[in-house]
Amino acid sequence: MKLKKIHMYPFTVTFDLLDAGKALHHPNYLIVLERARAAALTLAGLSDMELWKLGYGITVAHVELQYLKPIRLGENVTILTELLDVGSATLEVRQSIVLLENDHKNSFVQSFSRTKDNLIHDAKLRLCCVDLETLRPRRFPDQLKQVMAI
Fold this sequence. Notes:
The protein is α+β, with helices and mostly antiparallel strands. It is 21% helix and 37% strand.
């Protein structure tokens, strides 16, 4: 279904996210990546709020980050979110921040070519589905499986 495609999330760096060097502060990369993942799920048909109502949450279990170039105030970048693998209660996701010259909206595309010229940041994440009461791993709900076409 939709998450078999690459989600594109446009983002502009704002003053509140900067460090003393006038670039995106390193912990704020995780915040921006989280916004993009939430937007991808919502666009695919299942928001965080809907998951919470069902008693589920998605947490980050593991992160690998590679900072390649700084992102400066006012720069327009795109966050690509790509589903790599799905387990019964885990997701492997690749998220890349790239520079794009043309305008686009929050959308899904079939493919995207990352190059050394456009790649700014690259991350691989393992996400885990949890029960909101116990915070223990839990199999994905049917609604999420349908969105991911598991």
